[in-house]
Design brief:
This protein is α+β, with helices and mostly antiparallel strands. Strand 1 (27-30) and strand 2 form a beta hairpin. The protein is built from four helices and two strands.
Length: 72
């Protein structure tokens, strides 16, 4: 599924597009924005919790950030 957050239809009413993303690709790589999209609220909370767990997830000399930019 193609997702363009700046598409006129998406800006007017984003809910149908977000619902389709949740059904078809709840967590996916967005090539244009070079980031991951997570569309389910519960999954967003899990990601947030993981990103705040600095004991287990630590960037070492920037290597982690470089790996995150790659698509799967």
């Amino acid at each position: 599924m193609r997702y363009d957050p700046l598409d006129e239809a998406t800006l007017t009413d984003p809910y149908p597009v977000l619902a389709a993303l949740r059904d078809q690709a709840p967590a996916t790589w967005h090539e244009g924005m070079e980031c991951r999209l997570v569309t389910c609220y519960a999954d967003c909370l899990r990601v947030r919790r993981v990103l705040r767990d600095h004991q287990h997830f630590v960037a070492t000399r920037g290597a982690w950030a470089a790996r995150c930019r790659r698509s799967p």
